[in-house]
Amino acid sequence: MKKNKFLKENMGFLFIIPWLIGFLVFKAYPFASSLFYSFTDFHLFKGMSTFTLQNYLDVFQKPLELKALVVTFKYAFMTVPLKLVAALFIAYILNFKIKGVNFFRTAYYIPSILGGSVAIAVLWRALFKDDGLINGLLAIFHIPAVHFMSDPNWALFIICLLRVWQFGSAMVIFLAALKGVSVDLYEAASIDGAGKWRQFFSITVPLITPVIFYNLITQLVQAFQEFNGPFIITAGGPRNATTLMSLLIYNNAFKNYKMGKASAQAWVLFVILMAFTALSFWSQKHWVYYADEDGR
Amino acid sequence: MKKKVLAVLMTSVMAASVLVGCGGSAAPAAEAPAAEAAEEAPAEEEAPAEEAAEEPAAEVAAPAGDVDYEPCTIKFDWWGGDSRHEATQKAVEAFEAKYPGIEVEVNFGAWTDWETARALEYQAGNGSDVTQIGSNWIPDYDGDGKTFIDLNTVSDVLDLTQFNASDLEKCLDPVGQQAGVPISMTGRIFYWNKTTFDKAGIDYPKTIDELIEAGKTFQEVLGDEYYPLELGEYDRALFMSFYMQAKKGEPIILEDGTLNVTEEELADGLAFIQSLEDNHVIPTIATLAGDGNVTLNENPKFIDGRYAGVFEWDSAPLKYTSNIAEGQELVVGEELDFGEAVKGSSAKVSMAFAICASSQHPHEAAMLIQYLLNDPEGIMIMASERGVPASKIGFDTLNDAGQIDPLIAAAHEGVYAADPMFFSPRFDNGELKGDGAAYIDVFSGLSYGDYTVEDAASILFDAYSNVCE
Q1: Banded model confidence at residue A98, pLDDT cuts 50, 70, 90
Q2: Annotated domain spans of chain A
Q3: Cα angle at A237 between B469 and A126, to 5 degrees?
Q4: What is the mean pLDDT of chain A?
């Protein structure tokens, strides 16, 4: 009887054991151990000899690490707004009843599937190298060639562009949200004389702010963790202009085997992400509209 | 009640399947290239290493020659290009046919990130039985002598007398064990696009003055896009070491690991490299980045002859000759004369085979190495895919059969004709050579104008001092 009661009370726990084991082994333990290592000089092949705060200080003092931090911020603040605007704009257009809309929806989603693959890296290089397609087109209009891949200022731009180009998943989410906006509201606004722009900014945008908020958070997290673009296209160059924090962490951990340093950098990135996410959640009371009873 | 029992059973099955899934997912992920390799080599039969480990060790078979061995599965990894992959797979198949019962699981791929993946396997105690290693891997990953076995312990099957003592010495680990056996020795030498030099109306350079003169001629006769030589960051570090060694008459890092260069000498070397850019001998780092960050053999400017010189290992010219455009001819040059008593070039162990300490079958692993390096059958199949063999019997067998690629043979001869100096593995340490490490920082910084020669020399001196301390 007692056994039955025990089983009954703990059945749920039994069901989650597989997940729990996976979580503890593959998430919680690495999470905790990386925090421990971040305060050490742990080198994969030389071991650990001292506890130190130097790894954290280096992030804000060493030129290379400080530059990676700045570049990561630049990257995030360029890609997130651009990607959200591009995704919303295309979703808005594709929400109209136009001929072949399903084809366009698929076509715009494809870049998200292709992602930062090697094939895309080859394509990007072919487009943006000094004698690439873009400079070829510029030459037709007698515009001087732009050194996209060798100029530190332009190199980050092409990496951002790769991420913005992959707006498909955000677009699909926006599209679903746009479909949820009642047509009655547009009709009423139209009768009151509101034009398309007014309708967009006064009806559409406020009603889809929860989805904008969701996309903002997910895109922010993705942007701060971006790795593929700079890794496969520019390898962090030129002059570390595209060395984002994630790439620096990878290089330190898996090229130089400085696990302690890499762990500290990963934790700094984590704290930054947490701070921005918390800030975003705090800010939503000022601009996100939820259609609940109390508007929350 | 039955439902509850069923639920508990289902939970257990699910938990077990997840755990099995976890265990299984790690192994195939780590061995993905091996699976690809198996696809390319359908004749090979796969047998999980775990099964082999569980096999009884008592069985002994001796069908081939007088070598005793246990039926088992051993793992073998290497990096390289397609032609090396094909030749090595054929050699492995022939080895398996010669020694029935030994199965070889192969894992191969391109160089990119290969070292990182193998280093992590060594650290995890999960390295292959036979592993192809670079010359700097022994000090970098086997500092305590616990990553690779002492090959003297398997010298009953692996004939170490086929190798020069001095070459073997270069594969000792810091505790004095024979961690590796050299496959080939190598040094950097110049390859010139004779077609482009003919077009410019000059012969390819043999001295540094002729090289600098060629830069001017190329610019005047052929145009700004033509350069007599291409050097990336690591190439610049190596060429600079030749320059400094020629001036000093000694290696810049001595055999005992001592740094043998001052900050002032480094500044002189860096100024020399910068002068090559200034004289249109080599393209700037920005120009190379603008080419799309591709390797030189894939760079259209090399393929069509606009970059007319390559500074490359004597074992690696085939990747250039196979890519160069039709009508272009690549020839081996000689080590450049700096006008000093010596040419300052250096040579090192190109690559070596080692047996991981985690191997359950070191005896059979040694048999595979013996077959690849010292058995005429294996030698002929492998040919010069890993350069000119360091093994005496390997060299004689290929030489007698005319199987050493003429370009590789000529390059190798050119390297050794210049009486190369010692090349320290420390020169290739990850702190210097890796992504975001000193060579890339210093030489790109200098080229972009971010560093003065003095700044660059100071950074490089500190980096060298760190790895040589």
Answers
A1: confident
A2: 55-287
A3: 140
A4: 91
Cβ-defined contact of A44 to B123 (cutoff 8 Å) = yes
Indicate the Cα dihedral angle B317, B321, B228, B186, nearest 10°: 0
Of B14, B140, B290, Cβ closest to residue A149: B290
The answer to whether the CB of B386 falls within 8 A of the CB of B380 is: no
Within 90-149 of B, beta carbons closer than 8 Å to A belong to 116, 119-120, 123, 140-141, 143
Domain A55-287, CATH number (from 3.30.70.20, 3.40.228.10, 3.40.50.300, 1.10.3720.10): 1.10.3720.10
Could you give the residue ranges of the DSSP H alpha helices within B279-390? 285-290, 300-303, 318-321, 362-374, 376-382
Contact between B119 and A46 using a beta-carbon 8 Å cutoff: no
Q: How far is B428 from chain A (nearest CA, A)?
A: 12
* Chain-chain contact of B290 with A46 (C-beta, under 8 angstroms): no
The model's pLDDT over A201-236, given as tens digits with 9 standing for 90+, comes to: 999 999 999 999 999 999 999 999 999 889 888 889
Residue B112: what pLDDT?
A: 78
Which residues of chain A make contact with B8, given a CB cutoff of 8 A? 7, 14
Domains detected in chain B: 34-185+349-406 (3.40.190.10), 187-348+414-468 (3.40.190.10)
Residue B108 near residue B88, CB atoms below 8 Å: yes
Q: What's the pLDDT score for residue A71?
A: 96
Q: Tokens 């055999």 correspond to what residue?
A: B255
Chain A's closest residue to B18, CA to CA, is: A18
Closest residue in B to A14 (Cα) is B11
Residues B248, B341: Cα–Cα separation, whole Å:
10
pLDDT reading at B237 higher than 70: yes
B445 min Cα distance to partner chain A (Å): 7
Q: Is B294 in contact with A238 (Cβ distance < 8 A)?
A: no
Nearest-angstrom CA–CA distance, A206 and A226: 29
Tokens of B3: 């439902």
* pLDDT for B359 beyond 50: yes
| ipTM of the prediction greater than 0.95, yes or no | no
